[in-house]
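Table 4 source record.
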Amino acid sequence: MSRRTPPDDGSFLLEPVLVAPNFVIACQEWPGDIGQFAGGFLMEKKSRRGLLTKGATVAAAAATGAALLGSGAQAQPKLEKRSPYPPPNPPPAGPPMFSRAVAYGNMLFLSGVGAHYKGTIEEHTKTVLDELSKNLADAGSSLQKCLKVNVYLHDLADYNAMNAVYRSYNWGSVPPVRTTVAPAAGIPGGSLIEIDLIAYI
């Protein structure tokens, strides 16, 4: 194909231009203005190329997202209820009635601890909190990681004396929430106090 180029004397010369063969055939069959056809032909080619590029980009992004979701799902371990302590040796003769502690993810739930001997509320409170501190440490936690504490008193009249001992322990800069009740029927085993708690590891 050729295009007209104006020389210095004002006349026009034909200058050869390389174009695609399918464009030349289409030009020969086009009944209208050739300039309009050429512009439309090039715009159509550009639009098709843009659609193909966008389609490839979207497909690649979708594949990448699916791969990331798949790898994330595989990286997530299945959460199961478990004991935070090593198995007892020797193992018990039969299944225990309840666990000393149960972990779920990084959450830790400790059974209630009492002091089953003759003593004062101060002595019983110290015994219980010392035992809970040990149970927490054995599970990889501490009093500073406690989230919720439940206190059960045999006699609500012991509330202030219990608090005096309770305050002497380090519960961290943000102490756990706490509920204190006195069951009407008392506490099993003759203890003046029982405490259970929820913490994290």
